[in-house]
Amino acid sequence: MNRGTLHEQLKNLEMIFLLSKTDLSDLAMKFHEEMKGEASRNNSLKMLPTYLSAPTGHETGSFLTIDFGGTNIRLQFVVLLGEGHYEIIKSCSFPLKSPSGLYDYTSKGSSAEDLFYFIAAHIAEMVEAENIYPLGHTFSFPCKQLETNRAILINWSKEFKTSGVEGHEITGLLEKALAQKDLQNVKPVAIINDTTGTLLAASYASPSADIGSICGTGHNTCYIEPEEPSTGRPMIINLESGNFNKIPSTPYDHCLDQASERPGEQILEKAVSGRYIGEIVRLVTSDLIQQKFLFIDNVPGFVDIPNSIKAEDVTDILEDNTLSLSRISDWLKFNWEIDHSSLEERCALKTIASLVTMRSAQLIAGTYIGILHHIDPLLLSEHVIAVDGALFEKMPHYANRIQTTLDEIYLDNSNKVTLRFTKDGSGIGAAIAAAICISK
Ligand code: GLC
């Protein structure tokens, strides 16, 4: 193996993956232009009105919530106590698959009826017939909100494919399934996006929270528009920023996009989110393997298996701080039957994982800078960016990397912008939205 050449390849990857300060400012500016609608026909941000604004913090009551947006669904009983306090009384989470694992409710072969009946059946196991349950529903896909309790799915994202849901009003589908299960005592009162939920959960306790974001399986951000044009009042806008497409991209991104369910869509999300970053790592590594810079005699099977490296694997690779990178060695052994790998090969794998995740954090920071420029160009006020999602919570150095990228731009003003991990915000926010809607 030519050490110098592998080194050069990795240096080259660094050049194409990492963003300079100028790249960042450029991205932030393009994002801001789209927020203002200046890119008009080419606008990739959906900017969806939610008809909700920040809570007062005094909302109280008990609510059932559905958090639907990834491969697992979560049902919870949330009690809002006011002044930013809440309790989760009961929580249950289940995959969107039949117990045998054979039937996948997110696949094209599954229907809206099957999917919502499946959810209603799980709700039936949590509730009692004699009680009434106001329900807040976090449905984390791009929706055209008709009002706070009615939303039409514009299109699926995150590789969901269930038939008969796109173009349909979601609360109606849920209500039908609840009626079939004889659950008239479960009353949907609000439907929101998970970014809105995260923002509501953070601003329930802290009035300076004005941006909500998800860095998990998917990626998206919402913010409070201080003066929404149709009402002249503050309103949370769901940017659907995962669809933003004015980012510097690499041949690997192109390849991933072409093989995806919806080429040309969700371009930012495909470069940054947990659903896709393992695949980018796989594509980059496979490229180096095919060019014979790595694993020359013993090619790991992931080269031929799309999506075989997951975000969890990337986390494990980056968590390996042993001198000999023994955890990466074990990963290669147990998952890919590579009994012998060199330290140089393991280092290369870790460098690739690190570049892909660093770029993800930088791109996301760039969009936050664009939003902050839109709502407070001189950065006169304090802003809390509430973030939920496994990538933000668990990926080594990820949250720090977003913060340092912001700090590098804001310098002396950097204390004005705080990232706040808002665990389970997307679910708790559904209870807050329900409380707001009931009191209207
Ligand atoms: C996808 C969805 C978006 C959601 C995000 C995070 O981007 O389109 O609505 O907020 O994933 O779950």
Mean pLDDT: 95
Please tell me what the overall shape is. globular
**Discrete helix count:** 14
Order of helices and strands: HHEEEEHEEEHEHEEEHHHHHHEHHEH
Biggest pleated sheet: 6 strands, mixed
Fraction of residues in β-strands: 15-25%
Structural class: alpha/beta
Give the bound compounds.
alpha-D-glucopyranose
TL;DR of this structure?
This protein is an alpha/beta fold. Helices cover 41% and strands 20% of the residues. It has a six-stranded mixed sheet, with helices on both faces.
Textual characterization of the structure:
The structure is a single chain. By secondary structure, the protein is α/β, with parallel strands linked by helices. The protein contains 14 helices and 13 strands. Strand 6 and strand 7 (150-153) form a beta hairpin. The protein starts with a helix and ends with a helix. Alpha-D-glucopyranose binds at residues 69, 140-142, 157-158, 193-195, 214, 216, 218-220, 240, 242, 269.
Helix-strand layout with pairing:
Elements lengths: L2 H15 L3 H15 L12 E2 L11 E8 L3 E11 L2 E11 L16 H15 L6 E7 L3 E5 L2 E4 L16 H11 L5 E7 L1 H12 L3 E7 L3 E10 L4 E6 L12 H8 L8 H6 L4 H14 L20 H9 L6 H11 L6 H33 L7 E6 L1 H5 L3 H13 L6 E5 L3 H14 L2
Helix pairs in contact: 1-11, 2-11, 3-4, 5-14, 6-8, 8-9, 8-11, 9-11, 11-13
The chain binds alpha-D-glucopyranose (GLC).
The site of alpha-D-glucopyranose has 17 residues, from helix 5 and strand 10.
